[in-house]
Amino acid sequence: MEKLKETVDFDSYVDDFLPQPDSDDGCEGGADKKRRRLTQKNLFQLWGLENPNLDLRPSTATSLASRKNQQRLCPFYKRIPGTPFTVDAFCYGSVKGCSAYFLSHFHADHYIGLTKGWSHGPIYCTNLTARLLRICLYVSPSFICPLELGTEYSLNGIKITMLDANHCPGAALIHFRLPNGQCYLHTGDFRASKLMQSYPVLASQRINILYLDTTYCNPKYRFPSKEDVLEFVVGVTRRYLNNHPKTIVVVGAYSIGKEHVYSAISKALGQLYEGIKGLRANELLEKKYIDHFAADETALLL
């Protein structure tokens, strides 16, 4: 695979950080400790931290203040190599060399750093996420560039396609195709489904680099499909209400992200109320999520 400018050399990366065989000099313990220190140092440097052994305990008010004012460096895994783009990298201020900031979805651990005072560059995201940025975070519309799902766009000669991530409303996989044919896919947070295999841009083009959240990247995590989960939740709710018809069903939720759950309950069992906290965000959601929301003296309190 041709290496692009600023692309991480993954072969040398692996060689640097995999444990090496013990030396024959009879100092295995010392050699191991030395290797561990070097590994940590190299990894921190790769993340853009100049001094991994820095003592973070504040010794004086002056040193603490200076650290607070020190700008954090954007790590390599938030940059798209060979492009002036970053993804979910809003807490690093103005990122050197970045001309476009992509947001995968509207969850706080991804948009952290975005405020109404954002002025570092254009933000590219889906239409729904753009609406949430404007109304929930008061980000200036002049910095928000909404993109339609499934539509290919060209920016600085690079083809960009946002794909439904099957996560919260507005969440997207972001596909980048460079002029030399290299293709990168940034997943943000997503829930894999068979439908994704039919996305034309994924079915027809090889992915050269995949940016993947590995939180649950372990065979022990085998989650049921979203459809199975919704069927289970509706079944449990229906059985309980049959036995206790005056029960108020409360569904815990983020500001966005659980719409499928209470929409499925509502479709199966009747009307619902929304809690005050979730109302404002859900007013912004696409119509398919609010068809069954109604103000009536019945069934579900969320």
TrEMBL record:
SUPFAM superfamilies the record matches: Metallo-hydrolase/oxidoreductase
What the entry lists under Gene3D superfamilies is as follows:
3.40.50.12650, Ribonuclease Z/Hydroxyacylglutathione hydrolase-like
Residue ranges that the Swiss-Prot or TrEMBL entry lists as coiled coil: none
Q: What is the protein's given name?
A: DNA cross-link repair protein pso2/snm1
Organism of derivation: Solanum tuberosum
